[in-house]
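Notes, p. 3: input format for complexes.
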Amino acid sequence: MKMYGFWRSLAAYRVRVALKLKGVTFSEEPVNLLGGEQHDPAYLKINPQGAVPALVLDDGQILSQSMAIMEFLEETYPGVTPLLPRDPTGRARVRALCHIGVSDSHPLVVPRIRSYISKDLGLGDEGTAKWLNHWSAESLRIYNDRLSQESQTGIYCHGNELSMADIALASQVVGATGFFGCKLSDYPKVQNIFDALCKVDAFEASLPKHQPGAPT
Ligand SMILES: N[C@@H](CCC(=O)N[C@@H](CS)C(=O)NCC(=O)O)C(=O)O
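Output follows (216 residues plus glutathione):
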């Protein structure tokens, strides 16, 4: 398989981790989001949405949207590192935890939104940085509150087994602390879980700092 990604993309991070946890062999082709390559006509043929990740399967079919790709991988490789619990309520909880990051928070900080509020709406660099910090902090606060309060939380987001929720959580932490000025120590439960996740090779090896193109 081939994944179109970018070193600092949080959505590509999610798919990178999932591919590694499932033991899938893949190559990664960078799309320079900071240089606008997502708008190149050649890339728009791969993903008309102009976003990464896009996953090209061995038979040439192309998948997009990190959540849909994680679900696809789970359905295709159910026996390798299951990413959803078996019980329906557990599955609903894991998916809900995913959507806090994937659907509610991450879309507020992607390049197209940053550019629109900064340039088109005139918020400028300082206003945009505040926006990014605010919504990133809000997502970590919500994760921290839920994960602290709910009895299903274990070493990881859902008990002591890895799940998609951990992938979504880690991607939010990576963005919030790496790019948008949040302090992980303000969210102790999230910090504990993220520390545990970083001991898992798929999470650590997928971090932006290890990807080609990342600043040294
Ligand atoms: N909901 C999508 C988000 C995809 C997305 O927006 N990716 C960002 C990078 S993290 C992107 O490529 N943005 C391009 C842009 O905003 O111009 C997913 O989870 O895959």
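The longest strand covers residues 2-5.
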